[in-house]
Design goal:
Order of helices and strands: EEEHEEEEHEEEEHHEEE
Largest sheet: 7 strands, mixed
Low-confidence stretches: 1-56
Helix content: 10-25%
Mean pLDDT: 82
Number of helices: 4
Distance between the termini: 19 Å
Strand content: 15-25%
Radius of gyration: 19 Å
Structural class: alpha+beta
Shape: globular
Length: 278
């Protein structure tokens, strides 16, 4: 998932924040600004509207309480921020409470030579084992918040695996977390992978030896899939989005760049890539 580190002509162009799509997603996605203290190259950013409340304006309702296990960014006021995610207070204690075994890690925030954007994050861990007792192809290096979200996702995975596949998931093969880069299709747009704030999942290996592979088993039809593997993929991806576990859940529905994996991240804006894009 990407975010632009260049100037913006306006919020109407913000659908390009979705990585690789050929048209606007069915999502709230607004063009970001630059975080305080982050390297800034956004010189054409539109200001946020300065709307003064009228004396008769009704008091806005309080925000809805978060459901347990949700970590998606639901604050529209920071959609314009570009940069590494903010640290979470007592996140390591929260990881322990969530049943995550981890190791502290470091990923210094830096601007690569010749680059216009920062990479790294101030709070990262190596994810060893979560509450779903799932192993990974390589221990994921993630922001602390992404580690919490992944732990929440593991519970969804095991619930749907038991219900649909009659087996538990023993292993998840991923194809990347941290890599300091722009998006290949749009130069100047920064990937959430640059902050270790994303993970790409390619397949799920069951305890009985079967493998559910995104490239092979995902069904992009409009109707509910009939094959168990496809139904499992549909259910876990949509729950991850609809239950606000991640800010972005991108699947083969989203575009051809995601034909072989699910992209999950905690960007400051939202995109639903679990349904046909039209």
């Amino acid at each position: 998932m990407v975010r632009r580190a260049l100037g913006y002509a306006g919020v109407a162009a913000a659908w390009l924040l979705a990585c690789g799509t050929s048209g606007p997603p069915r999502a709230t996605a607004r063009a970001p600004a630059v975080a305080a203290g982050a390297p800034s190259v956004a010189t054409e950013r539109p200001p946020l509207p300065a709307a003064a409340p009228s004396p008769s304006a009704a008091t806005p309702p309080p925000p809805k309480p978060r459901r347990p296990g949700s970590y998606a960014n639901v604050d529209p006021d920071d959609d314009f921020v570009v940069g590494p995610p903010d640290p979470i207070d007592d996140c390591e204690a929260a990881l322990g409470k969530a049943g995550v075994k981890f190791q502290r890690a470091t990923l210094p925030v830096h601007t690569p030579k010749g680059s216009s954007f920062a990479c790294g994050a101030p709070q990262v861990v190596t994810y060893l084992k979560g509450p779903g007792d799932i192993t990974y192809g390589a221990p994921p290096l993630l922001t602390c918040a992404m580690a919490l979200a992944l732990a929440s996702f593991e519970k969804i995975v095991q619930e749907e695996a038991a219900s649909v596949l009659r087996s538990r998931v023993a292993r998840v093969n991923h194809i990347g977390t941290y890599v300091c880069r722009e998006m290949a299709a749009y130069k100047g747009w920064v990937s959430e992978h640059s902050y270790a704030n994303a993970i790409d999942l390619a397949s799920f290996v069951l305890a009985d030896g079967r493998t559910v592979d995104v490239l092979r088993d995902f069904d992009a039809g409009a109707d509910e899939p009939k094959k168990p593997a496809a139904l499992f993929l549909r259910k876990v991806s949509r729950r991850a989005n609809d239950e606000d576990v991640f800010s972005h859940v991108l699947t083969p529905f989203f575009d051809a760049l995601h034909k072989n994996h699910f992209h999950l991240d905690l960007a400051r804006y939202r995109t639903d890539g679990t349904r046909p894009q039209s």
